[in-house]
Specification:
This protein is an all-beta fold. The protein has one helix at 395-401, and strands at 23-24, 54-55, 76-87, 90-97, 108-114, 120-127, 133-142, 158-166, 177-184, 192-193, 201-202, 209-217, 222-229, 234-240, 247-252, 261-271, 279-288, 297-305, 310-312, 326-327, 335-339, 349-353, 368-369, 376-383, 386-393, 407-417, 420-422, 432-442, 445-452, 460-465, 470-474, 490-494, 501-509, 512-517, 523-527, 536-542, 545-555.
Length: 557
C-alpha cells in the first residue's frame, strides 16, 4: 500500500482517480495455472540486507530506542504488516520494507519469523520491488487443498495475494494498482510470482485499489477478498474458489469516519464472548488521516455477512463526532493491523504497525525506522446497543513476556497522598510489563510516571482523572519530540471505574508504551523517544489519597 517514492508523505499525496464505477475481474487465460518456471529475483536478499536467521540487535546506549519486545528490522524502514500467517509451527510476519534505506520507498516485503510473537528472527527479503512493480500490502493463505494448482496435493503452497503498484514498463499504466499472486513451496523461504499477474484489477485502472486480505467463507466454500479504493472510502469484496479468479460481490461504504483514506480492510467472523454460540462479522479498517487521536487510526464495524454483502449494525454516520465511531486503539501509533491467518488458540490475533503517517518518516531512530505493536488477541462482547471488540496481549506473547526463565518479577503496594513517591529500581527497566490496580476513590488524579529523568523534568505520564473517568497517556515531556510539529503531546479515552478502581496492563519498551485496560475495552498505544539514562519510576496522586498495587515483570537480555 501507499504512494510513490516521489511523494514523501501520505497527507501530501494528491487524490488520484475519481470513484471507480466499473469492476473487472482479470481472469487468467485458462483454468490451468501457468506459474513461472523459476523463482523471481525478489527471492534474493538485497545488498546490505540481513543474513538468514539474524535476530535483531538489542537496545544500547548507541541505539537507545531499539525495541526489545517488538518486531523491527535490523536496519531500514518498515511499515504495514503483510501476509501474516502461522504455518508449520512458525509465525510469519511479512511487512512493507525498504531494503535500501531508512525511509519509505522501494516497497518490498520484508520477512521475520517467531515461535512466541515476541522474539523475532529476520529472514531475507521475500518479495523485492523494482522500478516497474513495487510490492504493496497483501495477505497469505495456506492453500492446504492446492485449490490454486500452484503446488501439489503432497506439497500445497502458501499463496500470497498482494498489491502491485506499477511504474514504467509495468503490466498496467504507470501509477496503477492491482492485485497479484505469488506462491511458496518451501514454507515461505522463497517466492515465485504467478505468470498471469495481475489477477484482479479495475476498469479503468485505479491508482488507489489495494490492500487485499483473504477470509474463508465456509457456507459458500469460497474465499472472500476485501480491498479498498482508498480515496473513495469504499471497501470492495470479491470471491474465489482458487485464489486466482475473482468475481465481484459488493461494496461497503457510507458509514463511519470518512476524514481520510480507507486502507487495509479485513472481514472476519468472531464468536461473541459468553458461550451463547452467537457469531458476528467484523470489518476492521484503517483511516489516514482522520483517526481518533489525530492522523492515522483504526476503526471497526460489527454486523452480518450473507456471503455477498457486509452490513454494519449501529454504525456511526459520516460527519458524526469521532467519538461515535468504534476504534481499536485510542493512541496515535496503531495502524494497518490485520490478523494472523491460522493462528492457534481459537481467537483472532492482530498485529499492527506502531506508527502514524503524521510523522512516521521523521522519527529520529537509526539505522532502523518503524516497529510493530505487540500482537493482540481480540474478543467480541455485547454491551448495551452495540457489540464491542476487546483487545488484550495475545496469549503466546503474554507467555513469552512473563516466562519465569527469562524474566524477573517485582511487586509494590503503596498509598500516595497529594505527592509523588518513587517506585525504586525494581520499576526502572526500559522494557517491562506492569500490572497496575489503582484505587482512586479518594483522589482527583492518580497515576504513574515511567522513564523519568533524575531531575524530574522528563517522564512519560499515565494518569486517571476520577471526575471525568478518563485515562490519559502524556508523552509531551517524555523525550525527543522536535522532529515534527504533528507529534501530538497526549491521548486519552473514557474508562469507567469499577468499584472505585482502575486496572491497567502497561507494556513499556525502549521507545513505546501500550496501555491496556484490564477488560481490554480501551488501548492507548504511543511511541516516544526518551534519553537512555531516564529510567526513574514513581506513583503520584493529587486531590487526595490513591492506593496502588503494582507488579513489574522485567524481560532479561
Amino acid at each position: 500500500m501507499l504512494h510513490s517514492p516521489q511523494r514523501p508523505s501520505r497527507p501530501a499525496r494528491k487524490a488520484a482517480l475519481a470513484v471507480v464505477a466499473v469492476v473487472l475481474a482479470m481472469f487468467a487465460s485458462s483454468c490451468t495455472p501457468t506459474p513461472d518456471a523459476s523463482p523471481s529475483a525478489a527471492n534474493l536478499p538485497s545488498a546490505g540486507g540481513t543474513a538468514v536467521g539474524m535476530a535483531g540487535p538489542a537496545p544500547s546506549e548507541s541505539d537507545p530506542w531499539r525495541p526489545a519486545a517488538h518486531l523491527t528490522a535490523s536496519q531500514n524502514w518498515i511499515n504495514d504488516p503483510n501476509g501474516l500467517v502461522y504455518e508449520n509451527g512458525t509465525y510469519h510476519a511479512f511487512y512493507q520494507h525498504n531494503p535500501h534505506g531508512n525511509f519509505w520507498g522501494d516497497m518490498s516485503w520484508g520477512h521475520s519469523t517467531s515461535t512466541d510473537l515476541v522474539h523475532w528472527t529476520q529472514q531475507p527479503v521475500a518479495l523485492e520491488g523494482s522500478a516497474s512493480e513495487e510490492i504493496f500490502s497483501g495477505a497469505i493463505v495456506p492453500d492446504t487443498k492446492n485449490a490454486s494448482g500452484l503446488g501439489t496435493a503432497e506439497n500445497p503452497p502458501l499463496v500470497a495475494v498482494y498489491t502491485s503498484s506499477y511504474g514504467d514498463g509495468g503490466a498496467l499504466p504507470k501509477g496503477s494498482q492491482a492485485q497479484s499472486v505469488a506462491y511458496s513451496l518451501d514454507h515461505g523461504k522463497s517466492w515465485t510470482k504467478y505468470k498471469g499477474n495481475p489477477v484482479l484489477s479495475l476498469q479503468p485502472a485505479s491508482n488507489n485499489f489495494r490492500d487485499p486480505k483473504i477470509t474463508w467463507y465456509e457456507p459458500g466454500k469460497y474465499w472472500v477478498m476485501t480491498t479498498v479504493v482508498a480515496d473513495a472510502q469504499v471497501v470492495k469484496l470479491f470471491k474465489s474458489t482458487d485464489l486466482l479468479h475473482w468475481n465481484f460481490l459488493s461494496d461497503f461504504s457510507g458509514v463511519g469516519a470518512q476524514g481520510g483514506l480507507w486502507e487495509v480492510p479485513e472481514l472476519l467472523q468472531i464468536d461473541v464472548d459468553g458461550g451463547s454460540g452467537l457469531k458476528k462479522w467484523v470489518m476492521i479498517l484503517s483511516i489516514n488521516p482522520g483517526g481518533i487521536a489525530g492522523g492515522s487510526g483504526m476503526q471497526y464495524f460489527v454486523g452480518d455477512f450473507d456471503g455477498t454483502r457486509f452490513t454494519a449494525e449501529n454504525a456511526a454516520k459520516p460527519g458524526d463526532p469521532l467519538t461515535e465511531s468504534q476504534w481499536l486503539d485510542h493512541g496515535a501509533d496503531f495502524y494497518a493491523a490485520n490478523t494472523i491467518t491460522a493462528a492457534p488458540g481459537g481467537k483472532p490475533v492482530l498485529l499492527g504497525w506502531m506508527g502514524n503517517w503524521d510523522y512516521a518518516q521523521s522519527v529520529p531512530s537509526t539505522p532502523w525506522r518503524g516497529s510493530m505493536a505487540i500482537p493482540r488477541q481480540l474478543t467480541l462482547v455485547a454491551t448495551g446497543s452495540r457489540f464491542e471488540l476487546r483487545s488484550t496481549i495475545a496469549q503466546a506473547a503474554a507467555d513469552a513476556l512473563t516466562n519465569t526463565k527469562t524474566s524477573e518479577v517485582h511487586g509494590k503496594n503503596l498509598t500516595v497522598t497529594d505527592s509523588m513517591e518513587s517506585l525504586g529500581s525494581d520499576f526502572g527497566s526500559r522494557t517491562q510489563l506492569i500490572d497496575a490496580e489503582l484505587d482512586v476513590a479518594d483522589s482527583t488524579d492518580a497515576g504513574i510516571v515511567l522513564r523519568g529523568s533524575a531531575d524530574g523534568k522528563a517522564s512519560l505520564r499515565i494518569s486517571y482523572n476520577r471526575a471525568s473517568q478518563t485515562l490519559k497517556v502524556d508523552r509531551s515531556a517524555a523525550g525527543t519530540s522536535n522532529f515534527s510539529p504533528k507529534f501530538s503531546p497526549y491521548h486519552q479515552a473514557s474508562v469507567p471505574m469499577k468499584d472505585g478502581k482502575v486496572r491497567l496492563r502497561i507494556l513499556l519498551d525502549s521507545s513505546s508504551v501500550e496501555v491496556f485496560t484490564q477488560d481490554g475495552s480501551v488501548v492507548i498505544s504511543d511511541i516516544f523517544f526518551p534519553q537512555w539514562d531516564n529510567t526513574a519510576a514513581a506513583a503520584f496522586s493529587a486531590g487526595g489519597a490513591a492506593s496502588f498495587v503494582l507488579t513489574s515483570t522485567r524481560m532479561q537480555p
